[in-house]
Amino acid sequence: MKNKFQIKEHFWTYYQNLIQEVVIPFQEKVLNDKVPDIEKSHAMENFRIAAGEAEGEFYGMVFQDSDVAKWIEAASYALMLKPNTEVEKKLDNVITLIGKVQQPDGYLNTYFTVKEPNHKWQNLQEAHELYCSGHMIEAAVAHYEATGKITLLSIMKKNADHIYHTFGKDKRRGFPGHPEIELALVRLYRVTGDKRYLELSQYFINERGTSPNFFKEEKGKRDWSVWNSDPEQVLYTLNQAPVREQQDAVGHAVRAVYLYAGMAEVGKETGDESLIKACETLWNSITQKQMYITGGIGSTHIGEAFTKDYDLPNDTAYSETCASIGLIFFAQKMLEATLESKYADVIEKALYNCVLAGMSLDGKKFFYTNPLEVNPEYAKKIVGFEHICAERPGWFSCACCPPNVARLIASLNRYIFTETEEAVYFHLFIGGELDLSESKKLKIQVTTEYPYNNVISYRFQPVEAAVTTTIAIRIPDWSETYQLIVNGEKLNAEQKNGYVFITKKFVENDEIVLQLDMMPKKVYANLNVSENAGCTAIVRGPLVYCFEGTDNGGTLANLRISKDGKIVEKKNNSILMGGVTTLEIDGVRLHAEDALYSFRRPMQETCKLTAIPYYAWANRGENQMRVWMQEE
Q: Which residues form the Non-reducing end beta-L-arabinofuranosidase-like GH127 C-terminal domain (predicted)?
């Protein structure tokens, strides 16, 4: 399956090349325990043991299989960007191994095959069997789309059939403690046409939160546990009410957005408006009251969870990379269902800030959590800061985030546009070529230096004769003004749901140019966010900026942004990919006595502060970082 949109631009070509050339080979070595001095994975060895090709004990998290699945998915997307016989051969070998692990009835899970063979399907609350199947199903679909091979797809159809015959109405009751399989089953349905998979996804969604408490019933039937989780903690498992009655985003943030993404997929596929309406309610709960300025979600390390409205601490923020990726999945499903720009706005926010910050610029180190303020003297050293890292580690014992970043960036082509019978919607401003030769007899060349330049050009090349169609281009929420120029003339176009619509007969070399307002701006938080009272953050276009100690004298607590000071854009060629736009901001540096407390107000001196894009922080050694700065 060919990508209709081929990315051809400086910024994202760099990242997709990094995924292909560095990240995928690096992660394959990690999964095979061939990278020294980092957390052990053992994920591939678990499969070898389960297949009878090696001896040993299962090692790792109960969901360790999912790391392999996400790597397969990322590698498959990479093959769609550029053929690679070596990667394809490695995929074939891994898939052959997975096939050897699968049991005759279709069951597939190394933890239970190796460690708990008598306890299959007894602990859906904790054991992640359905979660792992979901990720492997997604990998199978991606591999089939990339190569046309049905090897992994056949394995996972057999696995999905086993799950279908095990769970459902008039069968065994159940649904996953960690959602994921819901959205995976919809993907499997779309590629196979087998409606049983869609029905199974509907069942898992509709059964959640119903009475009696399934997880409580389940625990009462077994005498073993993974983590001894309390089934009465219904908020954590999103089991507090049927999904259509849930009003607030609660519990484990990744589980939540994976569930909501599945709900949106099923709602769109079946025309169930009640699911879409429920998703809109939950979306508002997240984005209006519980989302960081970077697109991060899940503010506490306790349960990796949402807490209360407006509880958004900066220095202890959990903001898991996977949670922002899941938020992007949720946003994309809602965008496809509604074609409203607010969903694309959040995709952009989370993508350019929290997700990119989750990986180092060399592709070999990763953040699990993404705080908005870091003091290396506190990180990992003080109670409450155990989860905070001042520099990215090479891997994690719970390594869900690194391969998740890889599969998202490798599949980014799928998030840029939507084609309907009536129009072509451009959601993200990414350069490249959109080939609609088969459907609309049209090719569109997109040229931009986004996210640092504010101009996006769309040049049209009809395949044969002139083509009449409608082009819809998102106007991002951060752009207060914009100009639309068609063939050199300004146009006041119709705007609806955050998009401008241009309908015309396109001939060769017709051009639409969008100019956005990318002037740096100060942002102020809702006054209910007590952490940010008296503070401001700086954004430029889609990018949130931050301050690092290495640029600002080491210590950041004694710095203030001048209330009426200037913000000057500067090109910096020393940080990333030939240069980024940094910001020079008028500020104040405070000087105080050494006493713990004093009756003297600190002395002030004017200074210049330097801010860099948040995604680029922690790439120049360990130092302090802040997004929100007090304003003087």
A: 521-630
Report pLDDT digits (tens) over 123-139.
999 999 999 999 999 99
**Residues 471, 455 contacting (CB under 8 angstroms):** no
Name the DSSP class of 413.
Answer: G
Q: Are 13 and 90 in contact (CB under 8 A)?
A: no
Tens of pLDDT along 110-166? 999 999 999 999 999 999 999 999 999 999 999 999 999 999 999 999 999 999 999
Residue 354: name the closest of 336, 340, 369, 337 by CA: 369
Nearest to 327 by CA among 390, 274, 264, 234: 264
Quote the mean pLDDT of the chain.
96
Q: Is the pLDDT confidence value at 386 over 70?
A: yes
Measured CA to CA, the distance from residue 242 to residue 489 in angstroms comes to 53
**Secondary structure letter of residue 48 according to DSSP:** H
* Three-class DSSP category at 260: helix
DSSP H/E element including 328: helix 321-338
How far apart (Å, rounded) are the C-alpha atoms in residues 131 and 124? 9
Is residue 578's pLDDT more than 70?
Answer: no
DSSP state of 149: -
In the predicted structure, residue 468 carries a pLDDT above the cut 60: yes
The pair of three-digit structure tokens given for residue 438, joined into one six-digit string: 């088969």
Query: What CA–CA distance (Å, rounded) separates 400 from 632?
Result: 41
Mean pLDDT of the region 558-569:
96
Q: Which of 533, 599, 526, 604 is nearest to 565 (CA)?
A: 604
- Tens of pLDDT along 278-298? 999 999 999 999 999 999 999
The three-state DSSP-derived secondary structure of 533-580 is: CCEEEEEECCEEEEEEHHHCCCCCCCEEECCCCCEEEEEECCCCCCCE
What is the length of the chain?
632
pLDDT of residue 573: 63
Contacts of 85 (CB under 8 A, 6+ apart): none
- Taking CA atoms, 250 is separated from 216, 246, 307, in Å, by 19, 9, 7
Which pair of tokens denotes residue 119? 């306890």
> What does the alpha-carbon distance between residue 515 and residue 93 come to, in Å, rounded to a whole number?
49
Candidates 424, 390, 372; CA nearest to 536 is 372
CA gyration radius for the chain? 25
Are 38 and 394 in contact by the 8 Å Cβ rule? The answer is: yes
List the domains of the chain with CATH numbers: 5-415 (1.50.10), 418-516 (2.60.40.1180), 525-630 (no CATH)
The side-by-side arrangement of strands in the sheet containing 455-462 is 5-7, 432-436, 442-448, 455-462, 511-516, 482-486, 489-490
- Contact between residue 234 and residue 246 where contact means Cβ atoms under 8 Å apart: no
pTM of the model as a whole: 0.97
Residue 350 DSSP label? I
Angle ∠(391,250,333) on CA atoms, nearest 5: 85
Q: At which residue do the structure tokens 């599969």 appear? A: 407
Angle of CA points 233, 239, 244, to nearest 5°: 150
Residue 436 Cα distances to 431, 432, 505, angstroms: 16, 13, 15
Percent of the chain with pLDDT over 70: 99
User: Rounded to whole angstroms, what are the CA distances from 34 to 96, 227, 471, 599?
Assistant: 21, 29, 49, 59
Q: Does residue 605 sit in helix, strand or coil? A: strand
Active site residues: 304, 400
Nearest CA-CA partner of 536 in 523, 546, 545: 523
